[in-house]
Amino acid sequence: MLHRARSIDLTQVAEWSDGELRRVDDYLAAEEPLEIRLNGAPLTVTMRTPGHDLELAAGFLFTEGIVERGDQIQSLEFGQTEREEASGNIVEATVSGNACDSERLQRNFFTASSCGICGKASIDAIRARGLRAPNPEFRLDADVLCTLPDKLRSDQAIFGRTGGLHAAGLFTAAGELLCLREDVGRHNAVDKVVGWALGERRVPLGDCALMVSGRGGFEIIQKALCAGIPLLASVSAPSGLAVKLAREMGMTLVGFLRGRRFLVYSGEQRLVNGQSVSFDR
Questions:
Q1: Which residues are known to be catalytic?
Q2: Are residues 183 and 48 in contact, defined by beta-carbon separation less than 8 angstroms?
Q3: Structural domain range at position 196
Q4: Cis peptide before 50 (omega within 30 of 0)
Q5: In this structure, are residues 118 and 112 in contact, taking their beta carbons and an 8 Å threshold?
Q6: Distance of alpha carbon 120 from alpha carbon 126, whole angstroms
Q7: CA 31, 198, 139, 248: dihedral to nearest 10 degrees?
Q8: pLDDT confidence of 201, banded at 50, 70, 90?
Q9: What sign for the dihedral angle of Cα 77, 78, 79, 80?
Q10: 165: in domain
Q11: Which of 116, 166, 259, 264 could pair with 186 as two cysteines, CB 3.0-4.6 Å apart?
């Protein structure tokens, strides 16, 4: 029988409060390795929070350019260990032959919950994939944008119990939450959202905005662009390389979205009630 890994672990801790020490139960976000196998061969290992693992695998295959369309993924299922035991930490992906470019897969992927794919932060690599600029007609009211952090936070069920997870939420232009996924890795949360969208046949996501907890790093921008998302917002800062990529590709990038204040690093024309400004650098 397949072992279903839990998203939350329970432990005991010593709590110090106002001079008193006592032992209490505490919830922790689970973190376990997930191996993704492609057509029977190991492809990557990522540290993730168990849950929505098939979506994570589908999103990863798509945002990393291993497949260009969802219909190239012929099957996704949980695999077995070497002892032929069912495992919730292995996903077997079968993709169509023309989607599997051996030269593109020569590099061994190894991802970690903190940094995404090591050594892959290259805008040249993004250019080589021929990604298009996202929908230039998408518009989002600035007042609606300001409501997204609270909506994201209120639906983070696991974060509410553990305080230790990142989240990615997909929203309509009216501010309706379509999909929210949590993970110890912010890039994994985005892949889970994209994997959901692939299953719903909604990609490209040219009529949606993506809100992420934490910072807007290069990996996050890259994955959002692959899915055709025109606007990405985060509660913290983007990296310099993320800003450069967003500006080059024509994506709207918002950072420090908190309360009634935010910074626009590129693509301010998509924000209704916003003023147009130019960026010298």
A1: 115
A2: yes
A3: 140-272
A4: no
A5: yes
A6: 10
A7: 80
A8: very high
A9: negative
A10: yes
A11: 166
CB 219 within 8 A of CB 110: no
The one-character DSSP state at 276 is P
Kindly state whether residue 24 falls inside one of the protein's structural domains: no
Q: Give percent of the chain with pLDDT exceeding 90.
A: 60
- Position 34, amino acid: L
What's the pTM value of the predicted model, to 2 decimals? Answer: 0.84
CATH of the domain at 219: 3.40.140.10
Q: How many residues does the chain have?
A: 281
The Cα 245–Cα 11 span in angstroms is 42
Quick check: is 181 in a domain? yes
Token pair listed for 175: 């501010």
CB 36 within 8 A of CB 51: no
What token pair was written down for 66?
């291993």
Nearest to residue 39, comparing CAs of 100, 105, 101, 127? 100
Q: How many domains does the chain have?
A: 1
Q: What confidence tier does 2 reach under pLDDT thresholds 50, 70, 90?
A: very low
Q: What would the two tokens of residue 55 be?
A: 């979506």
Strand partners, 80: 86
Residue 176 lies in a domain: yes
